[in-house]
Design brief:
mainly alpha, 115 residues, 0% strand
C-alpha cells in the first residue's frame, strides 16, 4: 500500500507544482479560466502558493504521516472550491478540478489505509 501512496502522492505533487508554475507565469489558458470564474488576477499568486504548499505537504507527508493527511485534506478542500467556483458561474468545464479532486481523495484513502 505504501508504494501506491508514494506513486499517487508524487504524481499529484508534480501536477500541483506544474499548475502553480502556470499561475505564476500567468499562463494564458489559466488566466482565461481565472477570468471566467471571476477570480482576481492580482491574487492568482495565492492559488499558486496553496498548490505549492499542498505539493510540499504531500511529499513531506511520506515521512511525517499526519502532515501528508493534512495536505491531502487541504488539496481536497482546494479543489472542491475550484469546482464550486466553476459551477457558481455555470461553467460546466470542471473535468480537470474533479479529476484532481478524485486523485487527492485517492491519496487520502491510501494514506489512511496504510497508517
Amino acid at each position: 500500500m505504501f508504494i501506491a501512496t508514494v506513486i499517487v502522492s508524487v504524481l499529484l505533487a508534480a501536477l500541483l507544482v506544474f499548475s502553480a508554475i502556470g499561475k505564476l507565469r500567468r499562463d494564458p489558458a489559466q488566466m482565461k479560466t481565472m477570468r471566467q470564474v471571476g477570480f482576481p488576477e492580482d491574487r492568482v499568486w495565492s492559488l499558486a502558493a496553496a498548490e505549492t504548499a499542498g505539493a510540499v505537504g504531500l511529499v513531506a507527508g511520506l515521512f511525517v504521516w499526519p502532515l501528508g493527511v493534512a495536505a491531502a485534506v487541504g488539496v481536497i478542500v482546494y479543489f472542491i472550491g475550484a469546482g464550486a467556483a466553476h459551477l457558481r458561474v455555470r461553467d460546466t468545464n470542471i473535468a480537470a478540478p474533479v479529476i484532481i479532486l478524485l486523485v487527492a481523495a485517492a491519496d487520502l484513502a491510501l494514506r489512511l489505509l496504510s497508517a
